[in-house]
């Protein structure tokens, strides 16, 4: 039976989300894995109010994560200087289950450099400056549970697939 990999990240928000998910799943197959993409859920939410639809998606994604053997998280900054908050939750959920956690980002800068390289923000709050690609809790989980691949590349479809495949190669070699 193939190792099941949950494919976390803001990829579901891309205009071509299904195409990106399918391409990642095909790459997983090439390395003997089976990718589980959040949009694989067969949900009929059209008749649900938005709040109920959101809860249905949450429960379906939890079910997918419970089935998986490990997770690969796209940590490329999304809608700000840091990774997608839903992906951060998924990484924490998997870490709590002691399942392997792997991640990648196409932003080669340190988190502190993405937040304008200042020590405090406009409200006086301290900016993390630990020479890490994102929040120390996310990078710490990756360090303990698997690994992080950082590549300074343009945030494009092809670059995501290229770096994702590099990470699959690392995972394949580590097994």
From TrEMBL:
MF GO annotations: 5-hydroxymethyl-dUMP N-hydrolase activity
Gene Ontology biological-process annotations: deoxyribonucleoside monophosphate catabolic process
Cited InterPro entries: 2'-dNMP_N-hydrolase (IPR051239), Nucleoside_deoxyribTrfase (IPR007710)
One Pfam match: Nuc_deoxyrib_tr
Cited PANTHER family: 2'-DEOXYNUCLEOSIDE 5'-PHOSPHATE N-HYDROLASE 1
Protein name as catalogued: Nucleoside 2-deoxyribosyltransferase
Species: Amphritea opalescens
Upper classification of the organism: Bacteria, Pseudomonadati, Pseudomonadota, Gammaproteobacteria, Oceanospirillales
């Amino acid at each position: 039976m193939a190792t099941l990999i949950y494919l976390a990240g803001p990829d579901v928000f891309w205009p071509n989300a299904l195409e990106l998910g399918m391409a990642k799943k095909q790459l997983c197959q090439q390395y003997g894995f089976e990718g589980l993409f959040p949009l694989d859920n067969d949900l009929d939410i059209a008749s649900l109010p938005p709040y109920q639809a959101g809860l249905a998606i949450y429960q379906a994604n939890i079910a997918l994560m419970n089935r998986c053997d490990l997770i690969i998280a796209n940590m490329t900054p999304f809608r700000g200087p840091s990774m997608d908050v839903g992906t951060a939750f998924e990484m924490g959920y998997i870490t709590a289950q002691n399942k392997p956690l792997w991640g990648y980002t196409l932003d080669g800068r340190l988190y502190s450099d993405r937040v304008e390289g200042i020590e405090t923000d406009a409200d006086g709050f301290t900016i993390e400056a630990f020479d890490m690609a994102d929040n120390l809790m996310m990078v710490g989980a990756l360090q303990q549970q698997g690994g992080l691949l950082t590549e300074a590349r343009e945030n494009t479809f092809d670059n995501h697939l290229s770096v994702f495949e590099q990470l699959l190669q690392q995972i394949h070699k580590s097994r």
